[in-house]
Design goal:
Length: 155
């Protein structure tokens, strides 16, 4: 990412959406950007694991876990797979686990919080659908920018 989100907003203003949700930074890469891919799932990370094991080509996976902190949707093994497969980052409207290990990976990770509890592995949910949370609509193929100041998304 070449410009900070604050500078991008100053330059492009209302062409960008900004979420007021206070995501925490967990990955070893604090600033990241890329085209959006999406998953909608609730306390079930089977689709997350499968998707992050495919070529990411610099994309950012946005996961809508309905804001649940009841189980983690990503841990260190899935995050390591994302790094190996070329993903730029992951934004989780939910929780992660193994946060210390994730902090050492070259991956952007933003989530609401942590929980050591594993999620279900049933494969429920949807991939590459429009997501809406935190006042932002996340559409597949639109660009997402993230850093220590927050998350911006193309309209």
């Amino acid at each position: 990412m070449t410009k900070a989100t604050a500078d991008l907003y100053d330059e492009f203003g209302e062409e960008l959406q900004s979420t007021p949700l206070q995501f925490r930074t967990f990955g070893g890469r604090a600033a990241f950007d890329g085209p959006i891919r999406t998953i909608s799932c609730f306390e079930d990370n089977a689709l997350v694991k499968t998707t992050l094991a495919t070529p990411g080509q610099g994309a950012v996976l946005v996961i809508d876990g309905s804001g649940s902190l009841g189980t983690a949707l990503m841990g260190d093994m899935i995050a390591e797979s994302a790094v190996r497969h070329g993903w730029a980052g992951v934004v989780i409207h939910g929780a992660v686990r193994d946060s210390v290990a994730i902090s050492h990976l070259d991956l952007g990770v933003k989530a609401l919080g942590t929980n050591p509890r594993k999620s279900a592995k049933l494969g429920t949910g949807e991939v590459d659908v429009d997501l809406a949370f935190g006042g932002v609509v996340f559409r597949v193929g639109k660009h997402l920018y993230a850093d220590e100041d927050g998350i911006l998304v193309e309209l």
